[in-house]
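Re: weekly structure request thread

Next one in the queue (59 aa):
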Amino acid sequence: MAEATFVLSAETAVPSRGSALPYWQQRLFIALQRREQPWSAHAQLPPSQTVIIGREVSL
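Done, posted below.
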């Protein structure tokens, strides 16, 4: 465990003009998502051994 490297994926929501959701709902969803703790904190993974690969997703 001491030499393990953990790889996580993360998605970040970004607002989109062509969305079916109204802009205020997009902003609310994004704000709630940003308040969440990262998965590495939930799983209590050591930051020095954790790699997070992310992407942006339009709402």
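The first helix runs from residue 23 to 35. The CA atoms of residues 7 and 37 lie 16 Å apart.
Next request, please.
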